[in-house]
Amino acid sequence: MSVHDRIREMVENNDVVLFMKGTKTMPQCGFSSRVASVLNYMGVEYTDVNVLADEEIRQGIKEYSDWPTIPQLYVKGEFVGGCDIVTEMTLSGELDELFDKKGVAYDKDAANKIREANS
Amino acid sequence: MATSDEIEQKLRAAFAPEHIEVIDESELHRGHAGWREGGGTHFRVRIRASAFADMNRLARHRAIHAALGTELIGRIHALALEVEA
């Protein structure tokens, strides 16, 4: 199976996938850590893919998404963005809207708390 | 040329921004993955340009990535973007 097929399978068979450096419980980069923390705090169920553990995925995901950096967030097969975009969308409420639209469960109160703490 | 100047030059040429700041934040990441002695690894760009008006977030970031080119992006470790139209 080609690396692009592997990635397609991951993002299509899992509702929320975060390609990151390290794991959701032990991130190894501040940018990956920030996105994982948001998802953890919001109680989102997601699959974490540690690109440091798989060189083929690490390169392949950049081509697959046409996006040069890690982390990368996918929701229901659709590329959402990297650390800056996910952060902006969290603070603006757009991430909540996206989860609502795609039918992904999350803790709305927790999302509001993130916004209060950063307002 | 310093990498920060190179980034600024390419973005000025591509988007004619009303405002642009390229900040080398490498020191904030001292000791982190990808950091090198002497800086030039972690950058933050604040840019405001009317060219971004009709683009969504993904399109804005993709346009900036394209303007910088894969060679430059491959050379640096991190690029934080704050984009406004």
Automatic annotation (TrEMBL), chain A:
Which Gene Ontology molecular-function terms are recorded? 2 iron, 2 sulfur cluster binding; disulfide oxidoreductase activity; metal ion binding
In terms of SUPFAM superfamilies, this protein maps to: Thioredoxin-like
Keywords of the record? 2Fe-2S, Iron, Iron-sulfur, Metal-binding, Redox-active center
**Does the keyword Amino-acid biosynthesis feature in the UniProt annotation?**
no
Positions of the Glutaredoxin domain: 16-80
Q: Which CDD domains match?
A: GRX_PICOT_like (cd03028)
User: Which InterPro entries does the protein's record reference?
Assistant: Glutaredoxin, GRX_PICOT-like, Monothiol_GRX, Monothiol_GRX-rel, Thioredoxin-like_sf
Coiled-coil ranges (or none): none
**Chain residues that bind [2Fe-2S] cluster:** 29
Q: Sorted alphabetically, which Pfam families does this protein's record hold?
A: Glutaredoxin
**NCBIfam families given in the database record:** Grx4 family monothiol glutaredoxin (TIGR00365)
Return the similarity comment. Belongs to the glutaredoxin family. Monothiol subfamily.
What is the protein name stated in its UniProt record? Glutaredoxin
The beginning of the lineage is: Bacteria, Pseudomonadati, Pseudomonadota, Alphaproteobacteria, Rhodobacterales
TrEMBL record, chain B:
Q: Which InterPro entries match?
A: BolA, BolA-like_sf
Task: Give the domain of life.
Answer: Bacteria
Similarity-based family: Belongs to the BolA/IbaG family.
The record, for Pfam families, names:
BolA
Write out the GO biological process terms.
iron-sulfur cluster assembly
Its recorded name reads BolA protein
SUPFAM superfamilies on file? BolA-like
